[in-house]
Structure formats: C-alpha cells, structure tokens
C-alpha cells in the first residue's frame, strides 16, 4: 500500500501555515486633488473640471462594488480601522463619505470604536463640511499642512497659504478630538529656525499626533526632474534632531520614524501596516495585503481612475478590479516584515514575527546576528528593536535583511 504524502510534508518549511490571521484594516483611495504637488508621487490626479474631472457618484458606486466583490477574501474578519487616502479625500462631499461608510458597515463587521481617518487639505476646509464629516463617522482627521510658512508653501506648490493652514487646524479642533498634522522639513532653502517655527506652531495647538517627514525627491515627480535647492545632509540632520527634542519635551512619543503621538494616540491604522497586519485596499491604484491560512497575497487595483471605473462596471465583471496580484514568498515575507517593524522605536516581539510571517525566527538568525554586532539593533526574548544608530541609519539596517537576489 502506497503512503499518501501531504503537500505540506513535501514542502516542509516552505509551506506556510498561519495559526491565526493578523488584524485587518480597510484603505479607501480617493485619487483626485485640486493640484498635483511637485514632490508628490502618489496615485493622484488634478481636478480640472469638477463636473467632468471627478465623477464622484460613479466612483462611490464603483468603490462599493469593489468592496462587495472582495468580501470572499475576508469573510468573517473584523475591521479595526478605515483610512481614506488620496489625492485629497476632503474634496468628496460628506454625503459621499457617509454612503461609503454606510456600505462598509452593512457589509463588514467593524470593531467597536474603530479608528476612521480622513486625509484633508487645508485648501478644502469649510466649517460645516467638516462638521458633517464627523457626523458621517470620521473620528480622526489627518491634515496635510506641510508648513506654516507662506514662502515654503508656495515653493511646495500647495493650494493653501499660512492663514488657511491655521484656520484648518482651528476648524478641525472644533469637530475632532483626534487630529494629525503632516509637516515636512528639509524644504527648499529652509533654515533651522524656520523648521523650528513650523514645529513649535504645530505643538502650540496641543494636537494628538504629528507626522514630520523629510522631503525627498521621488522619481516621476516635477522636483525629481527639476531639483530645487535643498538643505544639506548636516542641516537636515540638525532639523530632525531639533524636531525630535522639541516634541519629546512636549510629551510626544516618537513611536515610528516620522510619527509622534500623545500617549494612546498612535495611529492604529498605520501601526497595523508597520506590524505586517492585513489591509484591503479599494479604489484606483489601491494596494492590499491579505493573509490566508496557507498564503499571503498582495494586490493592486487598476491605477487610472477611468480604467478602474471601467473594470468595476457590473456588466464587465463581478470580480474585484485587480490589475496585479502575487503571492509573497518566504524570503520576501521576512524582509517585508522587518522593513516595516524596524521603523518602530519599540520594535516588535519575536513571537509577532513568527505569527505574521509563518517563519521561525531562525530564518533571519544570521541577519539578526549581523545587525546586533553592528549595534543597529538590541534584542532579547521579549523584543527586537532598532538602536538610535539603527534608526538614524535605517536603510543600512534594512539592507542586512534584503533577500540575497535583491541586493545590488
């Protein structure tokens, strides 16, 4: 009698067997904005004609069909957070946001008091509109301020000025008790004192969360083609140190490379990304990472809004409008986990790596040894975390964990 050998036995450690699935978030991409900023490499599109350039009702219907078609991939799983990103989601009407959230609540189990974030541009702020966003169910607002300096806002191609920025924060605080400000430093011709003014202005509002990003010149952007004059590395390092010290003094924890929060106000949605949690992304160009018991899959929706709408048409297909999909291999699972989790100041519990990747910690033992020897991480049985040096030279740290075939 011939013994039947299971596929898992043949594959051995190659076979993925997750004992439990990670938390699940929902990302909703609203791709239109008033003006494409010269540094922006996001999947976003200028609205030149409001009536024709942003087919709001049609797009909302497509999002809901996309979500319905995606349900078999996430049956029975509770959603812990929702994030409306863009583009400029605040261009959409509160009625549209309410319709989307109504469909989400009807189709998916939502965790009680789930974090629901909307990104907003100060150039789109109207007091009543943001009160209505709150009524629709948004309970966290993320405002793309970038700077409170009028000259720098002009150089960044923003549609708002310094007065708009301040007014936006004031309107936000009247309607929301959980507000994030996005700021940037290392701006064209920016001085250390100007960067200090920006961060101290933000701190004075007493907000719950501040994100401070170093301006980088990304491929396929206007700034990449026509680079502005930027502060040198030494000056931007001084800016970073100043920002960290200022926010620490004011009671903000630097819990992730660019994120600072009051106690208990860390972004739950982003924490789920950084700890290799799952997320379903719907909308033009949205990315998903979805775990099953025996595999982890990454997907991307069609990028162009017109193509996304066409592929979402009910007469075309009942499937989600997925342009690309692939299974994440074991080496990539290890690297992707480390690439995200090592952004966190407190790092991660070793058991989290095992649960989220389906791999034993021995899979990265050699790399951990190298990183520890170079004093880029600290580790014990409870936690693996980047050192201050590891955080300052994060790319060097992550290079250690790159799959061999990916190294240059």
UniProtKB/TrEMBL annotation:
Protein keywords: 4Fe-4S, Chaperone, Cytoplasm, Heme, Iron, Iron-sulfur, Metal-binding, S-adenosyl-L-methionine
Main location: cytoplasm
GO biological process: porphyrin-containing compound biosynthetic process
Compartments where located: Cytoplasm
One protein family per Pfam: Radical_SAM
One function term, GO molecular function aspect: coproporphyrinogen oxidase activity
Gene Ontology CC terms: cytoplasm
Domain Radical SAM core: 18-253
Function text: Probably acts as a heme chaperone, transferring heme to an unknown acceptor. Binds one molecule of heme per monomer, possibly covalently. Binds 1 [4Fe-4S] cluster. The cluster is coordinated with 3 cysteines and an exchangeable S-adenosyl-L-methionine.
Family, similarity comment: Belongs to the anaerobic coproporphyrinogen-III oxidase family. HemW subfamily.
PANTHER family reported for this sequence: COPROPORPHYRINIGEN III OXIDASE, RADICAL S-ADENOSYL METHIONINE DOMAIN-CONTAINING PROTEIN 1, MITOCHONDRIAL
UniProt name for this protein: Heme chaperone HemW
